[in-house]
Amino acid sequence: MIKYVDTIREIAKKILEEKTVDLIIGFKKGTLPLMTEPVLINDVEKTGQLYWDSFCSMNLANYLPKRGEKIGIIAKGCDSRNIAVHIVENQIKREQLYIIGVPCKGMIDRRKIISFLGGKEIQEVIESDEDITIKGEGFEHTLKKDDYLQDNCKTCMHRNPVTYDAIVGDLVEERKDPDPYDDVQEIEGMGSEERWGFFSNLIKDCIRCYACRNACPLCYCPTCFVDESDPQWVGKSSDPTDTMTFHMLRAYHCAGRCTDCGACQQACPMDINVRSFTRKLNKDVLDLYSCEAGLSIEERPPLDTYRPDDYDKFIR
């Protein structure tokens, strides 16, 4: 995906020069290998900082809510779906945005590569279409990208942007996997006690740093429920009940809105797969309402609509 860099810079320079936007939200190279950094650019002369590779995993839609400028934003498939959610939820207006779409074959999970190297220091990274070469003192490894993708990218069914004003390359072929929710079906096959044990064990190392919440583009409430003091819904300690309450309620707040971008899991310093909560609810919404988040800027989330003739089997 590094081949997109020149096109991204050309488009960004053009729309800044023509005053189509006031600023660009994108990525620049990080200070360490395998890392990139979000960057906001409002100067044409600085568009050369813009960068793109298979480590641009952060969801830039997180920077959009309640901004007043005209914004150019670089967006892969999941980012564009979150942008659509923000438009539907009145966090940003479509006419404020110039979306630079990036077809995506998946982001690489840097932690998987670091684990593979066993603590060796990386000095250079070279990326091609299918491979990534990692170099350091006394070693060089060429790895297949598909073997080191983020977990959410392995099951992503919407790799192309759903809405955009410019596209930086040819659209990629979408996955045709028969069922992207095999892992959720395993959880659904558990009994209630086993399932509770699964989720309790999942979050046992949680330190309540709220990195998952802060990285999530859906968590834009002015005051989060965990920060409320009157009433205090959740305690501040690491009590397992409070920790489970946080994860459960946050997941339900995302129900029908989550695009499975993986930002929560990637941000977690304890490497907890918090996607297990949201993926179960994504599957439920798909099964019950035939709806996936962010595929349209016209359709409201299923849990945000009501009709007097709505059917539910528990209503007689």
Describe the structure.
The protein has 316 residues and is of the alpha/beta class. The protein has ten helices and eight strands. The strands form two sheets. The chain has a five-stranded mixed sheet with strand order 2-1-3-4-8. A three-stranded antiparallel sheet has the order 5-6-7, with no helix packed on it. α5 (182-188) crosses α10 (275-289). The protein is globular and about 55 Å long.
User: First CA to last CA: what distance?
Assistant: 54 Å
The portion of residues forming beta strands comes to 5-15%
Shape designation: globular
Mean pLDDT: 91
Q: How many domains is the backbone divided into?
A: 2
Radius of gyration: 20 Å
The largest sheet, given as strand count, sense and whether it forms a barrel, is: 5 strands, mixed
Placed side by side, the strands forming the largest sheet appear as 2-1-3-4-8
Find the structural class using helix and strand composition: alpha/beta
